[in-house]
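Margin note: ligand = adenosine monophosphate.
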Amino acid sequence: MNVILFGPPGAGKGTQGDLLAKSAELRKISTGDLLREAVRDGTPLGQEAKRYMDAGELVPDQVILGLIKETLAETGGQKGFSLDGFPRTLPQARALDVMLAEMKRPISAVAMLDVNDESIVKRLGGRWSCQQCGAVYNQFSDPPKKTGICDKCGYGLVQRKDDEPGTVQRRLDVYRQQTAPVLEYYRKGVTPVHTISGDRPIEEVQFDLRRMLGL
Ligand code: AMP
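Resulting structure:
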């Protein structure tokens, strides 16, 4: 089972991907997480990606495709994967089709998490992540036990630079212009596309997602 978690920034793709990883052993592949790891490690790729990320712009397709190819190659013995934040452009979607055809691991379904702009701005404003392990919390819907401290590793929580209001607006524009057409691409193809309302408690969204995937 290989699923694409689709939706605007802040729709809950990462949270739902984490839950699917726990309950269904689907490996979560998040290009945003992979990039943030590269930034933290100070690799040349991370240094190049950072300026795009901080500005709310997309990292060039070639960079992302190199990263995803490496990661998909590691999924051989696994039950399947969920993709969070990829593909985000039409060239990425087409390249993914070619890679997965070669691997004989087609996408089983696309799940579109639908959330309105007002909720997105509020959610991203309340998002805190761990500088050490990358765990994500939300002060409104999923707060850490101790304010400002990661439940998992005890490190301090920080807000992402790209979650600042001005950058969030840019990310929403980029989503509409460059990423939304990817959904139309899938709608025209053979992979089932399901829309789930993401404006609900995490558990309810997960319940619907699992039901939709037949899990
Ligand atoms: P995310 O955590 O998915 O919101 O991604 C954070 C940032 O990483 C995005 O705003 C982009 O700058 C970059 N990024 C993540 N995934 C991609 C992708 N598939 N294509 C281009 N840029 C990406």
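The mean pLDDT is 95.
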